[in-house]
Protein 1
Amino acid sequence: MPNQANKPRVVFLCQRVPWPPDRGDRITTWHFLQHLLARGAEVRIGCFQEEDRDQSAVEFLRERCAEVVAPRLARGKAKLTSLRGLLTGEPLTLPFFRSRELQQAVTRWCETPPDLIYVYSSSMAQYALQPKASAKIMQFAELDSDKWRQYATVSGPLGKWIYGREAKRLLEFEAKVARTCSRSLVVSEVEKQLFQELIPGVVPDVLPNGVDIEHFSPQGDGDRHPHTAIFTGVMDYEPNVDGVCWFAERCWPTLRERFPDAQLLIVGSKPIAKITALGDIPGITVTGRVGTTPPYFDKSSVAIAPLRLARGVQNKVLEAMSMALPIVASPQASQGLGSVPEQALTVADGEEQTIEGVAKWFADPERARRDGLAAAAWVRTEWRWEHMYDRLDAILDELKVPFS
């Protein structure tokens, strides 16, 4: 795309190619990226390709942006490279996501300081610390260091040491980033409280995710089965793997005993062997990647989000509720939602509460539909992406990013 005079110049950095919006981070980055483009920004994107299909996504973005630099991230090689952090004392995350090509591109883009550097995920902040810019926004969403702390608590001795070290080193880096950038953004008030406890002296702004209510809209009850539950997510992501495997092992046998025709749909790309094996359990279907998830929501009567290793506003929860499904979620997966209608969400801590939460809606399909519709009405009022764009625009105005 040719250079556009008198347009705000934005450098946009994120881990993954921000298209298509088919997983949590890509949903968020795409929506805020396209909002900046819609407002007339001249955007240059730095990110990583992880799979072959990302090349077409890069071409899609190049048609809309001034420039896209997206080196291929070979995860096997990157894991070996990340071990350098043990010698340098830095968090392993940083060398994992380090690229000379990307650093050279950012340096070139910032020879004339841009109006804004927008960073999503602390791993990409290493590219933004040195270059000058009129404003820098760091969208943490949640602190990655706390994810590693959670992993350490459920790991064996070696994992506890490695993950614990990563949590400590990455928090030190996140604090440096927060104190360098003009603004820090988190996804919920819960995250804001934790952020201020761990990084005192920096007060982040809350910028939640939204939900595409037009896309995630039910198309009727013709295919709906009263005893079908659904779990959605990328199925090589450890919190998803841990949560749905726990549910299949600890909760599903009892539910199948009480409801012999019960079905569980595990819908999401990249299922690892451990997830694929769940498809051998009676009543469980593992779909792998699907073109779109709404038809699977329309087959279901209740959604589940039994995550134990995650926190913050979960896209899977918002999408299920937008599809008019009541949801049973762990405390970790339900934090940050605010005042959800009581009938729409069951917060279940542990095996017994999770089983009973699903069973009450399996046992009463009319109640499940009524409570699901209440969930959809609430999401449409509180969680439209347009609300989040307004919050971002207010921050950009305060930072004097020169949109016309």
Protein 2
Amino acid sequence: MFDNKITAPPNPTTSDSVSQASSSEPSEIFSPAEFLDIARDDNSVTARAAKLFKTTPETFVNWRWQMRHQVTSLAEAREWIDMNEAESLGFSKLDQIFHAGVTPYYLSLAKQDTSSQLCPIRLQALPRVEELNDRYGVSDPLLEKEHSPVREVVHLYPDRVAFCVAQLCPVYCRYCYRKRRDNESGLHFNRAIIDRGIEYIASNKAIRDVLITGGDPFIASDGAIESLLERIRAIPHVEIIRFGTRTPVTLPYRVTQRLAKIISRFHPVFVNTHFNCQEELTLEAKVAIENLVNHGIPVGNQAVLLKGVNDSYERMHALLRGLLMMRARPYYLFHPHNVEGTEHLRPSVDVGLSIMRKLRGNITGFAIPSYIIDTPSGKVPIGHNHILGRDGEDIILEDVRGEIWREKGVFTPNFET
């Protein structure tokens, strides 16, 4: 079915990103050698998924093919996996609220039958009828519109901005806090919007750090990404450039050695990605991360705590260990935003605090992310309070084993902040 199907991506744009493949770009962009090497192993995700989707490995590792063949409807999903009732109703009742879109690669990671109602991949990617019921969800939980001095630039902290240059994503995550923008179009690498954003950043000398986000900014041509980096790096007061992208997780074939080499020309550049569960830690994802870190690009991971996905100590521990083995450092664990349609995925903060407490002392310190609640005024770290009290200049602590410890002489008398 999919070999002959050519469809426009969700939210079609007039940009120069996905739809315009430059004939001057080398063929390895579309069938990168490092991923074709994996496909030679018949047991690899790539080899098995290519067979499932009735195409060749050379075609399957083409990231543009993946974007053109996103699974977006109930009929398409049924071609490849068995659908349970909650998912089937979700597709039919939610298509006018928040569209679905899943790359063949990411869908191939899901359990293909309905034996488990809690497949972590399906929970993240496929609509469910539970999304219709949410007591607390709102459309813009971070009030981003109020912090946008120009369109697509979110300026909350004095020294940094989030620059939302992209609109398309390989997978439209069901818990996305920007799903309110689903009915908008023409935002993906829109030249006029980028021009105004660059002008705003250049005019504000307090801005030292630019986060390029979206959507997913890696869903653009190498040339478009390179041009954007050139323009931002030309601003003298911008010191740090960051990307927020989930492509290593949902479309690893996009993160090629060639792309990493382009990005590395503009150091210091950092990439934050978004693995949520151990099922996403495939060999393909490992190669994508290696392509970045081997070019000197530090990779951090921002996970979201989700029911049925990673809301146990055992599953979180496995995720964090796997990330370290891939050289992606755990950075944040976000408590899920109160975005509409996500109550069924939001665990109690008690669950998150319990997981974080168990991690301390049971995994190396730099594997432990900061547990965060994101508010309209910024990120607030939360965690178990190990400070039991103060006795003069001494602090009384509960250690990681639950025992009491007095550390002497650590307080300054009459200290004022």
Protein 3
Amino acid sequence: MEKKTTLTEKQSELSELEKFDKLAEQSDLDAYVKLNEQGESRDHKAPIVLDAFFRIHDFLVSHASMPIRRQLMDEINWDDRLIAIKGGRGVGKTDFMLTRIKEIETEWRNTPEPVPEKGKRRPRKSIHDIRPCLYANINDFYFTTNSLVDFVGAFVRKGGTHIFLDQLFKYPNWSRELKRCYYKFPDLHIVFCATPVMPIDEDNNDLKDIVKTYNLRGFSFREYLNLQTGLRFRSYTLEEIIQRHSSLSREICERVRPLDYFNAYLHHGYYPSYLGSNSFEAELLKTMNSQLEVDVLMIKQIDVACLHKLRKLLYILMSDAPCALNVSNLSEEIGLSRATVMNYIKYLKDSRLINLLYPEDKNFPMKPTKVYMHNPNLAQMIFTREMEPIDLYETYFYTAIHGSHKVNATERSAMFIVDNNYYFDVHDKPTMRDTIRPTAVAELELGRGNQIPLWLLGFLY
């Protein structure tokens, strides 16, 4: 006869978890690990079979393809033990992780085992005997009744050193479980994908002191150009571009004509997912709906009945962007309070569907000066109007700059101010007379004076 769990036992388990977290916050790691070991027999229901996960892992890793090396791969400190790869849908987070796994496994295979004190150097055992890496999608039904900590523990006991977790937000209390894994397995490296709306750093008390977060963006124009041409152009800093844009653009144009590729990038080049899709618009539409239905509704725990209003809000913004924000009109048109409209706008920004341009030293919940779509590909997903080229160029400028720099509106006549230092304008065509401030010009191949080719700002990463 199955034993029923009493209320007292449930309260005891709860108090033990609270004690567990308190010890972690006090950095009493010895006691923290000891408490984990004491609870292992209670948490561990049965031996975990990893073979099925390794079969999926092997298939995905063998078929993973990242046609160009993303710059972020070399910017991450892979020695960190808990790493979050944060990025919007469609930018290639899963392929990014699988590519990193390939690198680790290749290095592992090519490194001979240590030479014993007496004896000859031995070749490495098969990757199927000792598994240093494991990719696991937490969307698997297995995790509906099994503990993530037990699963990770089984992998570690098999010799695993690096685990990569996808769709982690679908696991209840995921941040607490990660925290337990971090302290319980001190030799394990954990990498996980994070959607932009997941609380990670300062917004997450479980992880804020132990996780390192990196942002994976869509393809830059440089990455897209490298992919299309097979060339290997490097990135430049904003200061390099401002000071040396004439010579830099000349060096690049001696090898390729960037403007021949620029319009295609504006249409479909930001998202790596366009590579394997017969219909880029259909693929991007699915991505946008997933951002609304999963990243916003599910993670922010919004009633599904509000989905229609959220979609309507996005459609209105898409129809006008870049545009000023009239919260009162939006509130009346959608049938929501002003406060709710502002919250929904913040969610759309967090999910990387839109960008908000604020005056200097202003931020949410203040009203932004302008609303932009997050990137030029999204900006062209509205089919009821033909977007003005200058609006598209402004959107590209914002997307190219804001990932690594602070971009604000300015009260002066300039369109943008970057890092509270550089005033910028954006023009579609070059002028015969030089401009008085840095000006990003769309239909300009070679830089001259203060007129900088707009495409060159896509070389910032």
